[in-house]
């Protein structure tokens, strides 16, 4: 099972950020392995199955702004520099949060 790369392409960086999420993975990647159920939280008692889409995609598409799901220790989005780049998602039991893998201007 592989680990896919996930990226965000920022289209508007003002205050809360607006962008497009992309998963470069496929059915054999970890992010495409999850239950087919409609349970409110994971993990649940249903078996993990290979899926056509990444589990993070619905969470990205549900929010109007990047800040809706961005994980920030102090919640100070007005000082965050929104930029395009690689991101890492984390399942929080009933939703997804994300962070940049490499901050803007830092070497990878």
What does this structure look like?
This protein is mainly β. It contains one helix and six strands, in the order ββββαββ.
Protein traits:
single chain, 108 residues, mainly beta, two-stranded antiparallel ribbon, 1 helix, 6 strands, 6% helix, globular
Task: Give a quick rundown of the structure.
By secondary structure, this protein is mainly beta. 6% of the residues lie in helices and 27% in strands.
Mean pLDDT: 75
How large is the radius of gyration? Answer: 14 Å
Distance between the termini: 24 Å
Which class do the helix and strand fractions yield?
Answer: mainly beta
Can you lay out the helices and strands and say which pair or pack?
Elements: E1 6-12, E2 18-23, E3 33-34, E4 49-50, H1 57-62, E5 85-91, E6 96-100
Antiparallel strand pairs: 1-2, 1-5, 3-4, 5-6
């Amino acid at each position: 099972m592989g680990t896919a790369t996930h990226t965000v392409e920022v289209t508007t960086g003002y205050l809360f950020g607006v962008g497009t999420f992309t998963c470069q993975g496929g059915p054999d990647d970890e992010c495409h392995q999850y239950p087919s159920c409609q349970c409110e939280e994971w993990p649940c008692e249903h078996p993990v199955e290979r899926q056509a889409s990444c589990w993070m995609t619905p969470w990205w598409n549900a929010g109007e702004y990047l800040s809706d799901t961005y994980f920030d220790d102090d919640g100070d989005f007005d000082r965050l520099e929104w930029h395009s780049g690689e991101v890492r998602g984390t399942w929080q039991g009933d939703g997804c949060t994300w962070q940049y893998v490499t901050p803007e201007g830092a070497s990878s």
